[in-house]
Each structure stands twice: as C-alpha cells, then as structure tokens.
Amino acid sequence: MNVNTMQIILIVFAVIAMLEAVWVLAAPESYKKFAGLWLRAASNVPTLLPILLGAIGVIIWGILVFQQPVYHTLIMLVGALFVVGAFLYADLDAVKRITDRFLLNRSTRTLRLIAAAILLGAILILWISITGK
Description:
Order of helices and strands: HHHHHH
Number of helices: 6
Structural class: mainly alpha
Number of strands: 0
Low-confidence stretches: none
Strand content: under 5%
Largest sheet: none
Radius of gyration: 19 Å
Distance between the termini: 28 Å
Oligomer: single chain
C-alpha cells in the first residue's frame, strides 16, 4: 500500500477529530473546562497563535500544490473563499469589522498596494488556468 503525504495529513487530522469527539461524548464537562482554558491561553498569545495556525495552513497547501496541478488547488481555494464568505455574511458585524480593518481604515497608498497584489495574483491565476499548469 502506497500512502502519500496528503493521506498521512488527513489520517492525523481524522484521528485527532475522532479523539476529540470521543472526549466530548464521554466527558462533555471536562471538554468545556478545557475549551475555557484554551481560550484563556490563546488570549495570552494573540499574535503568535494566528501566525502559527496560518503557517501550518500554508505548509499544508504547499504540500497539496506539489502533488497535483496548481489549477486544482486554485479552484479548491476559490471554493473555500466562497464558503468563508457565506459564513461571514451570516454575521454582518464580522463583515463590518473585516471591512473596517482591511479597507476603510487604510490609506489610499495601502489600498493601491493591495489592489496591485490582487491584480498580480489574478494575472498569475489567469496564466495558470490558460496553460493548465
């Protein structure tokens, strides 16, 4: 049996999810206490935790990119963005906070830099989709 890296990642996350589910089923109060402790610990590292989680996500995406054509990964990412958008628009306060933070409270220079980055990204995606890479 040939197991690749993506399968190993999925196996690890599935086992973690199963252990967590069994924990909740067996001792929901214990799990609630742990969740409270986790939130308190996470509030002490408000910058480090998002960076760590983001880095893990980028590493996983990188593994995925190297094992299949890039356009497969990009279409999956587009789908994920629509799902995230759906969740955000279910809470308009979250949309307002994100819009304020990333757009409305930025200088015109920063907005132009963001737009230039988006334009370059879109050109790259167009090139990848046309060439089928």
